[in-house]
Amino acid sequence: MGRSILQKANTDGSTITFPLGRIRNNPGDGTGTPLDEQSYGDMHQFFDMLMYRAGLVHNGLPENDANGYQFNDALDRLMRMFIIVNNADPGAFGVTVGRMPTLYSIYAGPTPGFRSGTVFPGDYDGAFIVVKCKNIDGITLTPDGTDTIDGVAAPISLAMNETVELVWDADNTDWIIKTEQKVRTKIIEIGGWDMDSSALLNVAHGLTASKIRSVRAMVRDDIGNYYTPIMTIVGNSPVGGGTVYWDSTNISLRRFSNAEGANIYAGSVVSAFDNASYSSTLINRGFITIEYAP
User: Fold this and answer.
1) pTM for this model (two decimals)
2) Residue 170 and residue 190 share a domain
3) What is d(CA 136, CA 141) in angstroms, rounded to the nearest whole number?
4) Spatial distance between the Cα atoms of 257 and 270, rounded to a whole number of angstroms
5) Based on the domain organization, do 87 and 52 belong to the same domain?
6) Collapsing DSSP states into helix, strand and coil, what is residue 114?
7) Reduced to 3 states, what is the DSSP secondary structure of residue 49?
8) Based on the domain organization, do 177 and 192 belong to the same domain?
9) Domain count of the fold of the chain
10) Considering the domain boundaries, does residue 194 fall inside one?
11) In whole angstroms, what is the distance from residue 123 CA to residue 81 CA?
12) Do 23 and 119 share a domain, yes or no?
């Protein structure tokens, strides 16, 4: 909890120029802002906590070109807790999440982003790191040493454009994935599919099947007039679509035939996709959206 300027003794109140108040000079009668702990204690606490959270140890020397600028280094390090792993950096495939560094050399200038290496948010409860993957091949985040990520001593994977925030639980030496990151999304192109001739298409998902929570598939007709979920019934007179399921390797998309539609819906039914409007293999037939646990 910090102390504002206006909570300190002998300060000037809020003005248009200084809306948060202002430290007052001493005109010689003792009415100036005192040089005491109340006025300057929080300032020193701020810089010491900045160093602590950045995992740096004071060198005990004045800040200058010869000795270095440790406070600037600490601020710079904490700013880099928001990590972008950039596709422009060759070999940027892995990041290790560690604690209390003795060396910090992960930054890969001049291109904003990071190469493979270790990032250290600091060994204190609530330390955090936000990682955004801009690498087309994806990246892995690996816990350092005996630490864990969400209770598991194994790496997690991020695909292109995925972001994850990890928060340090010092009591359990565990990096907790924030709640909103518990379910991630992966979108895959279906690719070419002649739905008129082929009822089934398998598309590799590249995930652990047991971690998949839901799958949706959207397909388009050949000329792009209609975009329709494959699991659908259209109109007052039912028009059958298809179904989606998965195994350890593939997402399986299956469209109903006209005959199957009639049997399933027990009426005068046709298939939405078993026709020439969905026959081209020269287009991307649509997209599969997968929600999965990390």
Assistant:
1) 0.42
2) no
3) 15
4) 8
5) no
6) strand
7) helix
8) no
9) 3
10) yes
11) 13
12) no
Tally of residues, the chain: 294
Q: Which token pair is 91?
A: 């070999």
In a domain, 75, yes or no: no
Residue 132 within any structural domain of the chain? yes
Do residues 190 and 286 both lie within one domain?
A: yes
R_g (Cα) of the chain, nearest Å:
29
Q: Where are the alpha helices (DSSP H) in the chain?
A: 37-54, 70-79, 258-265
pLDDT digits (tens, 9 = 90+) for 157-181: 888 777 887 877 777 778 887 755 4
Q: Are 244 and 252 in contact (CB under 8 A)?
A: yes
Contact (CB, 8 A) for 175 and 165: no
**What local confidence, expressed as pLDDT, does residue 107 receive?**
37
Contact 241, 230 (CB under 8 A): yes
Q: Which domain does 43 fall in, by range? A: 5-70
- The owner of tokens 């200084």 is 18
Residue with structure tokens 């998309």? 253
Answer with the one of 181, 215, 250 that is the final residue of a domain.
181
**Tokens at 269, concatenated:** 């039914």
Does the residue 98 lie in any domain?
A: yes
Nearest partner of 286 among 250, 246, 239, 253, judged by Cα:
253
Written as six digits, the tokens of 103 are 């060396």
β-sheet bridge partners, residue 214: 291
Q: CA 27, CA 41: separation in Å to the nearest integer?
A: 23
> Is there a single domain that holds both residue 214 and residue 277?
yes
pLDDT in tens, 175-221: 887 755 467 788 999 999 999 999 999 999 988 888 888 899 999 99
